[in-house]
Amino acid sequence: MIHYILRKLLLAIPVLFGVTLIVFAVASAMPGDAVLAMITAEAPSSEQLIAMRRGELGLDQPVVQQYLHWLGQLLHGNFGRSFVSGRPVIDLIGERLPITLELMGVALLVAFLLGTALGLASALRQYGAADYGLTVAGLVGVSIPDFFLGLLLVYLFSLELRWFPSAGVRTQGGAFSWADHLRYLVLPAASLALFRTAIFMRYARAGMLDVLNQDYMRTARAKGLRPRLILLRHGLRNALIPLTTVFGLSLPTLFGGSVVVETIFQWPGIGLLFINAVVDRDSPVIMGYVLLTAVIVMAANLLTDLAYAVLDPRVSYG
Amino acid sequence: MAEAVSLPGVAAVPTRSLWGEAARRFRRHRLATAGLVVLLVLVLLCALAAWISPYGPNAINLRARSQPPSWAHWLGTDGTGRDIVARVLFGGQISLAVGIAAVSVSAAIGIAVGCIAGYFGGKADLILTSVIDMVLTFPRLVLIIAFVAVVGPGIFNTMLVIGLLSWPSTARLTRGEILSLRGSEFIQAAQALGSSSRVIIAEHVLPNILSPILVAVTLDVATVILLEASLSFLGLGAQPPTPSWGNMLRDARTLSILEGQPWLWLPPGLLIALTVLSVNAVGDGLRDALDPRHVQRGGPA
User: Fold this and answer.
1) Which end of chain A is more exposed for a tag (fewer CB within 10 A), N or C?
2) CATH number of A98-311
3) Which chain B residue is nearest to residue A136, measuring alpha carbons?
4) Chain A residues with CB inside 8 Å of B280's CB?
């Protein structure tokens, strides 16, 4: 087991290295650099001044050296400074990360609970009307774009019914209260959750159907155990194992989705920070965000693999 | 394909070809058949936009601004009097074309890379697999947005960037399928006969792994249409005045339009959902039709 974990970690290192290489390549290819951004902001430019400043920042060095320098800085937790605000990227991201994780976490939790429940219900009535209806609903769920769903929800629940606010994280002016904040969370979280609910539902249904046909289920029934006990203790617990994979699979699309959803709802997380940085061509922020999401996805994939190995003893640690 | 063999004294037995059998199974999948019909109608409508719509997609008419649906303008007009039906149909051309072009690029690269990695193994496999792992580590939409920030927005760039960043999953699938075949006796036989690797891959390996790839590529069309729509919605895809389903939804970010002029954003949004739904249904149907081990009655697993 420990051997398996170590091997996974070791394999992750070259991939992580390659990831930094891709991020750096993208950033170097981006038009404009730190100096041009600063010059246009602060002073009339002259060729000499530009050259001098580039020298100070090491931008006149060969690309390989720049990369190694950047990598060294990364290892010290220095992600550079935003061209636009001049603030350290790590601070900009650090401030906004919690609120994005809150949005993504709530969406994922809702998707997991709702999707699993619906998937199980669907599996227990295989080929019934409810099963067919839910299967079609699941297909619709993975087909509606996040942003269209977001707009629909704002139209219905914010503009027409006036139940929930359409943008932001809290009512301006008043003191912060969780009740107030949660009202702002409902619509963006729902926009993100639907797609993942449909995915969880698919896997939960398939997992449960798989389990229902196993010999140990028949044995349990033959022993005369109560049906509810069989379903919960023998069925559900085993049917949930494949769902661990869905958590890992969900993260990349969750980051992509949060960029779009945060834009619609003006949710001040890292997704909104990223898209604004793209509009401003603020490459240090873009690099920081892309790198961070990649690292989180990688960590999540590792954890998923490990969780799977722990939960399902049939997985070989080869 | 099986052909009817006529033996003397034996009445001709009607035979079913592999693909005929698959087509029969596909037709039994009601949702998939419906999806295919809807898709064909949508493609036809968008392709014939210039003949169907009396208005051009960018024809401004300041005397008919922001009008609700009427006989003259079935889906109303936008803030500069452009006809929404025309914009939706021409926008569909862009959305569908980007989807098909990007997936063609990614499928071609993915299959080629997967074949090389899976068939030859060794160092080539190691390198290609690491590249696949690296690209797959990034959230796809995030990486695409970052690349678009470099090359700039626009239809062609969108198509290219999506295509060039979407191949790793196809490559991984192709590689896996080939690995499961590599030791097979018919491959060994072909190798023993001295066939070149290119011939073996093209004539013996690919036909045997085509079904799962076809299914994956079909489902990828759905994902890519969603990606293009997201990009255009964020203002990084098709640029105005060129319409695309995604950028038509941009107007709805203004609350007054979202509330007061739903005819501007509902049609493109519904069409994206309908198109993606149809493609997904067709993909599910293909899976059931091509992989008899995975038969489901009218639904995905």
Assistant:
1) C
2) 1.10.3720.10
3) B299
4) 139, 142-143
